[in-house]
Each structure stands twice: as C-alpha cells, then as structure tokens.
Write a structure and sequence with these properties.
Helix 12 crosses helix 14. The chain has 333 residues and is mainly α. The longest helix has 32 residues. Helices cover 71% and strands 0% of the residues. The mean pLDDT is 84. The protein folds into 2 domains: 196 residues, Rhopdopsin 7-helix transmembrane proteins (Up-down Bundle), CATH 1.20.1070; 107 residues, Homeodomain-like (Arc Repressor Mutant, subunit A), CATH 1.10.10.
C-alpha cells in the first residue's frame, strides 16, 4: 500500500475520534481540513500509483483549499468568500490546461507561503492572538499555530521542489518528494489543527463590546483582577479572552494590551496565576487529590496544569504538597 494512503488512513482515524469525542466538537473548518487532507493523500497515492486523470486534476484543487481552511480555523475570520477563491482559481487553471499549461505548482507554493506567513504573523502576537481559545490551553494552541505555519511553509517548499524536478528530470523524483515529505507534514498539520478544535469551547452568541477609550491600562487590569477575586472567573475551564471581555465590558485587545504592559505577561499567564494560587491553597489546606484540585482551579488537562504550576512555583503539585506537609487523598482515576 502506498505511504500516502497509509497516512490518509491515520488521518481518517483522527477525524473519527474528533467526530465521536464527547464535549465540544471542532468547528466545520477543522473537520473539513482533516477530511480534505486525507483526500489529498489518497489523490497523491492514486496520482503516482495509477496515474488516474481525475486524481491528477483534483490534487491541485484540494491542495489549494487547505491553506485557506487552516487560516479560517486559526484566525476565526467571518469573511469566508475571499478564501474560497484559491481552489476556484486552481479549478479554472486545471480546466484551461489543454490550452496553455499554467504553472500550478508555483502558484500552490505562493499560496502556502502567503498563508503560512500570515499564521506566523498571527503567532508573533503571542497566545492572546487567539481570543476564542480557552486560556488554560492558550500556550498549547499558540504552539499549534507555529506548527501549522511551519508545515504550510514546508508544503510551499515541496511545491517548489516539484517544479524544479519537473524542469530537471521530468518529475522522476516527485513521488518520493511527495510521499516522504508531504505525507508526514500533513499529519502534523492536521493534528495541530485538531488541537485548536479541542481548545475552543462552544461559542457564545456574538455581542459587540463597546470600546472604552477612557479606561487606562491600570484600571483595566484592576477590573480583571476584581472579577477574578470577587467572581472567581478563573475557575471556569471554558474561560477565554473573548468571554473575559464580555464579562468586563472591555474589548479583548484592550485587555491584552493592558495586561502585557502593566503585568509583563499575557492574559493566559495572568489568569493561570490565579488558578495556581488557588491550587497551592487547596494542596496545603485540603486533602483533595491532585486531579480534583486541577479541575477545581479551572484546568482541564494535567499537562497544562503541571506546566503552569512548575512555571510559577518551580516544582510539581505533588512535590509542593509534600514540602508543605499535606497528606494527599486517594487519586481519582
């Protein structure tokens, strides 16, 4: 069985797990992206294994749809129509192939470089650039953004290699290039996008938060801190920057800028500071299992809880409890 087909089967397993998983189901761009990634790999396997005409014609169209879908999945943009143009243009070029043989692979490379660069620019703003991601998952989601941006740029380089190989050897090395590089990069690509899907809670009805031009940075941070202290919002595992903006009646960008300037950290680190402070109290004052403490503080995964706990305290929750003389209760499964 060709390697691209094997990787496509792994992607279909990932798609099935996401579809059947309990809790929040990823949005349609994420599910469609993974499904089209598997389709692309099947087309690649058929293209270089059987040279089917339909596989040769459909591959560039599907490949042109993936970078826009990745951008929609990460940025959360509501303007969809501009990002529908690349696959439509690719389809038009394929339809006109008999007349002038347009340079499709270089165009796919430009598409990958453009959207990959846009994702890198988004990631350069830090974890706060994804305001609809759970604050507890912000670091993981930020890393996923970097992975997808890098994979997209790698895909663009592959398209350029394909063009060069066709010029030098008539495409003799193309199957090896696509099978060895594109196949594995696509599965990392899809897994990172699936990570974003799991990091987003169900969306709330959209409400426009008015911009408060008179609010100073210190006042904004004081408002956020008051919500944490009086309402204990940090205990909400689905808390996002957008939800915090709704509760504080301050736009998300203003909150992010104020917290960065006043506290020298991003919003997820600031909120996780409250969560870890609560975790330290529960570890030293109660006998709750570490897993229960994790959930009580607003975290959903042990990896994120342990990472943030170690970042702030320099040690693990279990060691912190031992050093402070508290006997843990039985661990929950």
């Amino acid at each position: 069985m060709p390697l691209p087909i094997v990787v496509a089967l792994l992607m279909l397993v990932l798609l099935a797990r996401l579809w059947q998983a309990g809790g929040t189901r990823p949005s349609w761009p994420i599910l469609l992206f993974i499904g089209l990634s598997a389709t692309l790999l099947v087309l690649v396997g058929l293209r270089w294994g059987t040279d089917l005409v339909i596989a040769r014609q459909a591959r560039p169209i599907v490949a042109a749809a993936l970078p826009p879908l990745a951008w929609i999945a990460f940025s959360g943009t509501k303007r969809l129509w501009p990002h529908m143009l690349p696959p439509l243009i690719a389809a038009g070029l394929i339809a006109s192939w008999r007349y002038w043989q347009p340079p499709i692979d270089p165009l796919l490379a430009i598409l990958s470089f453009g959207y990959g660069g846009a994702l890198l620019r988004l990631a350069s703003k830090g974890p706060d650039a994804l305001p609809d991601v759970r604050l507890g998952d912000a670091v993981t989601a930020h890393r996923a953004t970097l992975v997808v941006a890098g994979s997209m740029i790698l895909s663009g380089l592959v398209d350029l290699l394909i063009t060069v190989d066709f010029e030098l050897s008539g495409g003799a090395r193309v199957p090896a290039i696509i099978g060895s590089i594109n196949g594995f990069s696509l599965i990392f690509y899809a897994y990172a996008i699936a990570t974003i899907g799991r990091s987003r809670p169900d969306p709330l009805p959209e409400v426009e938060v008015p911009r408060d031009a008179d609010a100073g940075d210190a006042e904004i941070v004081a408002t956020v801190d008051r919500l944490m202290q009086e309402k204990a919002l940090y205990r909400d595992p689905d808390l996002t920057l957008q939800r915090l903006a709704r509760r504080s009646l301050i736009p998300a960008r203003q909150i992010s800028a104020a917290v960065n300037l006043v506290c020298g950290e991003n919003v997820s680190q600031h909120i996780n500071g409250y969560r870890i402070a609560e975790a330290k109290r529960l570890l030293t004052e109660t006998e709750k299992p570490v897993t229960e403490v994790m959930f009580d503080c607003g975290f959903q995964t042990k990896s994120n809880f342990n990472r943030e706990f170690r970042r702030i305290t320099g040690t693990s929750p279990s060691v912190y409890r031992e050093l402070n003389g508290q006997t843990p209760g039985p661990e929950t499964p």
